[in-house]
Amino acid sequence: MERAVLRILDANLDRAREGLRVIEEWCRFGLERTDLTDICKHLRQQLGQWHLPEIRAARDTPGDPGTQLTHAQEAQREDISQVLLANFARVQESLRVLEEYGKVYRTDLAAAVKQIRYQVYTLESTMTQKPQMPALLAARLYLVTAPVPNLLHVVEAALNGGLRLLQYRDKEADNATRYENATKLKFLCKQYGAVFIINDHIDLALAVDADGVHLGQQDYPIEVARRLLGPEKIVGRSTTNPTELQRAIDEQADYIGVGPVYETPTKAGKAAAGHEYVAYAQANAPMPWYAIGGVDAENLGDVIAAGAARASVVRAIMQADDPKVMTQQLVAQLAQAPSG
Prior knowledge:
- With 340 residues, the chain is of the alpha/beta class.
- The protein is built from 15 helices and eight strands.
């Protein structure tokens, strides 16, 4: 039984790494995306570290009945998208096998492969389903709006300052006002090439054809949002602790909010998660994540030092004397953070 498990691990480590290499070559030569190429290479190297000598030694290619099996669909691909989808499926199936049989062999292997599997899901979303996902990955600063009289003026100033990711959030307005504001904000974001997300309201995101929706812990399950909005839209989730982070991973959220880092009136009565949770997210979140909650220009350096590469702000820009200059300052600070 032990040798059979080792043979299963050997075969699926090979399959996963081969599939990743196929994907990596398209990232490199087809998309000419260094960032995605590096992700593929890193994932292959992570798997390679687990391809231990005792696993390789169990290999018996001549005695493997699976080497003779084939399927007509494997003989031809209609286009590049089919190549990518087939190899993503190949990688994900192999990783699931590695995770399950890894539990018998070494639990640390199973845990490592689980995290790799989530990263592959995110990579697939970036490359094959969500046209705005690359823009989200590139955006380190995320502005969440608050109700202010000069909403459009503040947002456009921030966009002029380099903002490329905006969430429209208004808990107070009626539906008609929210729809009017969202329509205008989407137009501004389109002008500046920014990603436009709606807070909570899946119906509003659908009505204005937003790029996605951000859901709190008490909102609909992510699968419901995907079913209503379509697989090409971005779905984010707020998290405040490791348990909620794990749930967001299991739901395959495209990105998450991590916080509140500090106490904030935006989340009245919510205890601060602190730098400890920021550090936890840095070590455990496979998807892009944004530190949020009382983050501003004065404490952003501390948040970055705790492990954040991205941050979401509200009052820091919405109440700034000069939103454009403040945005420029925050963007510049985040540009100095390590990649994440």
